Each structure stands twice: as C-alpha cells, then as structure tokens.
Amino acid sequence: MTEAATDTPLSRVLPQTDRLLEVKNLKMYFPVTEGIIFQKTVGEIKAVDDISFFMRKGETLGLVGESGCGKTTTGRCILQLTKPTSGRILFEGDDITKFSSAQLRAVRRKIQVIFQDPYSSLNPRMSIGDIIGEGPSVHKITKSKAATLDRVKELLSLAGLPTNIHTRYPHELSGGQRQRVGIARALSMNPLFIVCDEAVSALDVSIQAQIINLLEELQEKFDLSYLFIAHDLSVVRHISNRVAVMYLGHIVELSDSLKLYEAPMHPYTQALLSAVPIPDPVVEKKRKPIILKGEVPSPLNPPAGCVFHPRCPAATDLCRNEIPVYEEKRPDHWVACHHPLDG
Amino acid sequence: MTETVRVPAAADDLAAQVSWAQSILKFFREKPLGAAGLVIVLAYIITAIFADYIAPLDPLDVDYDLFNAKPSLDHLLGTDDIGRDLLSRLIYGARTAMLVGFVSSLVGATLGLFIGVASAYFGGIIDLITQRVVDVFISFPLIILALAIVTIVPDVEADMFLPEYLHWLWPDIFGTTLPVIVAITIPMIPRCARVVRASALALREMPYVDAARALGFSHLRIISRHMVPNVMAPYLIMLTAFMGQAVLLEASLSYLALGVQEPTPAWGLMLRGSAEQYFRSAPHAAIVPGLAITMSVFAFNVFGDSLRDVLDPRLRV
Known about the structure:
The structure holds two protein chains of two kinds.
Chain A: H1 9-13, E1 19-34, E2 40-56, E3 60-64, H2 71-78, E4 86-91, E5 94-95, H3 101-108, E6 111-114, H4 128-138, H5 145-158, H6 175-187, E7 193-197, H7 205-222, E8 225-230, H8 233-239, E9 242-247, E10 250-256, H9 257-262, H10 267-274, H11 281-286, H12 317-321, E11 326-330, E12 333-336
Helix pairs in contact in A: 4-5, 4-6, 5-6, 6-7
Chain B: H1 10-17, H2 20-30, H3 32-49, H4 51-54, H5 86-122, H6 124-138, H7 142-150, H8 172-204, H9 207-214, H10 219-227, H11 232-255, H12 267-271, H13 274-277, H14 284-311
C-alpha cells in the first residue's frame, strides 16, 4: 500500500483543508516478549498493519470488523493512547505522532473519546460535576469555580441530563445516563473530532437509539466528526457517511455507506452483510447467508498474500502469494482485493 | 434536543443516607470486635496525647527508697529497679509507641502508595526497576532491615536546625524517636508498594484512566486524582496492619537497646535489664509493659481486620 492510495483523482478534487484527519500507513505491532529482566522479542502481534484513510470535517466514518481486527487499536493510536509502531497521523495537517507532550496536550482538546462500557469509563470516586468539569478547569477554559459549574450544567443539558445531578456519583446513575455523562465529558473540551469506541454496544436497544440520536444532534450543532467504531452493522449504517471494513489489521474496503451496503466489492464485506438478519421472515427465508469457513487467523502469524485468502470463496494463487493493493477501484470506493465483486 | 432523562428522586436520599456517623454506627453493629479494637486504639491515643495530665508522677523521677517496689498507693503499679514509677512510665511509653506507630506506618504506607501506583501507571522499564528494588527490600525480614537502618540514622535535636524560639516545634521526643521511625518506615515502603501496585495495575487499564489521558491531564494529576483514590481499600488495610507491626517493632528495637534510648520511657525498654533479672521477685515490672504491647498490637490488628472486611467488596456477602 502506498501513500498514493489516498491521493487518487477524486480525493484530489477536495481541498486538503477539508481533511480533518488523515491516517497514513499506520502500523501498530505489539511485541511478544520472553524473560523477566532481559526481555527478548519472540514475535509481534500485528494489531494494525498498514492502514490509510482520511476523514472530512463533519463526517462520520464507521469502522467495523470482528473482535480482534484492530478497530479499537486504530482508535487508541489516533487518540495517542498508544504510540504507533510506524505511520503518520495528520490532524489538521500536522503529524501528531511527532508532537512533544506540550503540543500533544493542546491537540488533545480537539480529539476526544467515548468508551464502550459506561460503568468503567467514569471514575467511581468523583462526582458527575467533577468528572465533566475537570477538563475545562485544568485547561483554564473556565476561569473560576462558578464558571466551571455553569459549564457543567450547560454540558449536562446538552447531553439530555437534568442539570442538578452534578453532585451525584456515577453509581447512582443508570447505564444510559452514565453514557450521557461520558458524552458530556467528551464535549467539555469543545472537540472537533470524537472517537466513539463501541459507544453504544453495551447499551440495550432502546437506549442505543436515544444515544445515537443524541450523537447526531450534537454533530449537527457543533460540526463534529466521529470515528464510529462498532460491530453492529445496522447501527453503523444508520449513523455513518462512509464505512471502513477491517479484517485482521487491514482495511479491506472503505466506501460510502450506501454503496458499501448495497454493492460491496470485497468478498469479506459481502459475507459480513449476509450475516445481518433482515427483520422480514419472507425475505429472510429466501436469503442464503454466505458462511465463511475456518477461523480468523492469528495476528501473530498472519497468512501470506491477502490476509483473507484462507477463508475467501474466490481465492486464487495470486491471492495466496501477493498482497492486494488498497486502491480506489471506483470513485470514492477503496478496496484491497485481487478479484473484487462487481456488486 | 432529546427529552431530558429522568433521574428517580429516590436516589436523592441515597447519597444523604450514607453519612459518616451512620457508617461508623454500622461498623460498630456489624463488627463488635473491630469496634472494641478501635476503642482501645483511641484510648491509647488519648493516653499518649494527655500523658502530662494523666500520669501521676514524673516518669524520670527516681525514688531512692523504693527499688523494685510492689504496687502500693504511692506507686499504683510499683516501681522499677531504680525506683521510677511504673504507671507513669507506662503512660509516657504510650506516647513513644503511638508516635512511632502512627508516623512510621502513615509515612511508610503513603510513600508506598504513591510509589506503587506510579510504578503501575508508568509501566515498562520504570516498573521493572522499581519492582526489582522492592524485591531486594522485601527479601530482608522487617526486623533485620530495621536493625541495619537504625544504626545509620543520627539523633536530630531541635537546636541542630531550629532557632531557640522555635524549639517547641520539635519536642525532644521527636529527636530521640527519629532513628526508630526512619528504621521502621523504610522497610514498610516496599511492602505497601507491592500490594498497591497489584491493584493499580488493574486500574491502569480502566477506560476512565484512558479518558483522563485523552483529556490531556498531567501524569501527577492522573495518579493522584484518578488512581490513588481507587486503591484506598488496600492502602487502608496495609496502614492498619502496619500500625500494629510498627508498635511491636519499636518495642523489639528498644528491647535490643537499638531503639529508643534511656531515660525516655518506652515499653520495650521497660522489659529489658532489671525486668528480666528480677522477674521472680518483681514480676509486675515485666508483665505490665508486656500487656501494654500485646493489647495495642491486638487492638490494631482486629481493627484492621474488620476494616478490611468492610472495605473489601469481594469479601462482602
């Protein structure tokens, strides 16, 4: 995969400033070590292996894939919670992987995160007001205690919570309410970009809908961009402008969500989509789900060639030997496959 | 805007219900033994603070007519081999024991708390080095390490660093107990650090710690505001366990003539010398300080045990 992948004709039409975030050839390998004092590396887990994509301002990019495919690791790299092995992450044109800790502190205001588990994402020893207000007061966005409290109340009402709960503690709230507190905390720094790491997966369906509507409203209000990491394809379809499908550390397909769902080009995407049940028994009866054989290979020892070839129904010798190039096969539709489907 | 989520009003009272007074009352009801320990500890503390008013005589006054006297109205617990009032020495000895016990366990456990949390938080090479140093310290028995350290630390008197008019800030007892306090504190730091690190390792992976990092907080802030408050349970358990150990260790060091020096009243000192020699003719001289030591260690330990039961949610039924 080359940098040219993201510089194809169509994307060049768009002005560069339109790109809020650009990830180029990101790799995150976790070393597997042996020994207590003199550690030696015996292998590497390729959690994220050479992925590139960009995000436009105000856009939602869905990131889907099975568990262990590197979705969350990608999010953590963008947040600079783990230092990537190699690759560049350009935020508003600057490479944040090369930032000093002071520069990073400034840029962190603009990139926030919402976590999956609303129970462990809030510090149990801090009141709701402290959790939400800590960021603004530490970064001197609000200058006084009263101003911080006003900001907390404003954020609580933005997140659809009563403003008088700032004295409460997380254990007094329900899962959905806690998730709203998490959203209010993310908004407290006036971010441009929020990584939603499985932000609705732990909630039940009715609450999921509420939270998604809230996220959409906030996006409209503040022109936010979301990297929406999830494994629920129907949720992703609803919220995303574009969707990226990951498999074993690689992005196999990235496209407009409509095009991706209607006419997938990668056999893996096709198989994933066929696994989503359709809530209509008549249609459902006629469908033939594509059942992939085998298991996801270990990221410690990924297969040669296309990582998907051991499970791919269309695999050929070419797939076994050569890594497919991730390229724009159709306008705004990137695929890494030797034999893309016509859709 | 979506409609505001309703928070049930009942939750309002929930927070108010768990007040300090109520949780203490609950502790007394559920853990009578631990509560008894707490009462004894408090009694010792009060004795230590108000020793000047409680003690009938000066603990340093020598009564030349009465060596090894049996308990009498003049000397309620009798006198020692050079005629000093045993009851007064016992009461002033509580001051030494409590000072050493509280200061060394508090300082030792708290330093251990921060070292343990920092070690877990930073991880990698910092964690590795810290933990190997901790290993070295833990491989020595408490008493051996304390014996080695106590010989190195000098006495620090007030006039060594304070002007005359500030001498009240540094009473003589601080100077004479300082080597003992340091000697007991240092071996306790790595023991607490090891236990706290284990809890903090699990905390480091919590999303709220990641969220704090994403908000761009400093390491110090994340450690002190987001991690330390969440390892309070193991810290408090270690702290109370250390208090009993520290009292016992101070008595042991003094008994071995390496701790508090004569004529400062200390329980360990009261047990040595003549108390051993004359224990057949004057057994009270050994029994009384021995009981004081036993009671205090017992009280600290039962209180600590009950505190652990209350604080550790895994043991809660």
